[in-house]
Amino acid sequence: EAQVTQNPRYLITVTGKKLTVTCSQNMNHEYMSWYRQDPGLGLRQIYYSMNVEVTDKGDVPEGYKVSRKEKRNFPLILESPSPNQTSLYFCASSLFKGAGANVLTFGAGSRLTVL
Amino acid sequence: DAKTTQPTSMDCAEGRAANLPCNHSTISGNEYVYWYRQIHSQGPQYIIHGLKNNETNEMASLIITEDRKSSTLILPHATLRDTAVYYCIVRPSGTSGSRLTFGEGTQLTVNP
Fold this sequence. Notes:
The complex is a heterodimer.
Chain A: E1 4-7, E2 10-13, E3 19-25, E4 31-37, E5 43-51, E6 54-57, E7 65-66, E8 76-78, E9 87-94, E10 105-106, E11 110-114
Parallel strand pairs in A: 2-11
Antiparallel strand pairs in A: 1-3, 3-8, 4-5, 4-9, 5-6, 7-8, 9-10, 9-11
Chain B: E1 9-13, E2 18-23, E3 31-38, E4 45-50, E5 55-56, E6 61-64, E7 70-75, E8 84-92, E9 106-111
Parallel strand pairs in B: 1-9
Antiparallel strand pairs in B: 2-7, 3-4, 3-8, 5-6, 6-7, 8-9
């Protein structure tokens, strides 16, 4: 089944303890992106990647890192999480060309709580 | 990317058509209109997209005005399961459509 898989789905952690949220897609998509969703603020883009080793900042990149060493994986790294990073996170991917180009497929979401 | 404006909320009776408007008055010639929906806190789901012609698929219809400054998503026979937040975004084709912004969308409530 074509999908975007995020892990963990739920996580409670403490301030300053490094964590990684993984994202993997099995559709050979070039484009991958991370969003956070907070009440009243819609979906805000954190980082995106246009292909392997090509990443760029979105609207709210502060406090986050990403890497794209393989086409299928795009992990989101919080080096020193803080309570204001408590949020619902979504990973998404798409092709750039061909049938279905630029149609985003989203993961199920990762709910992160930082105490 | 062009910005979109949507009403915060709408109600619709079950079995009736739901018409969700979206304003994108600054849309560029190479930007497509995309609609997604999000049920509760699940991952957003793609519904439909179009450039300038009206489009229809098994989920919905998309009507884009001739000047392309606005569009309407139509759910022809809304059911309770269509209650969700609906997002309208515009995105250029190809690699220029990389930086994306989703607004707050429209909360559609379908009432029995």
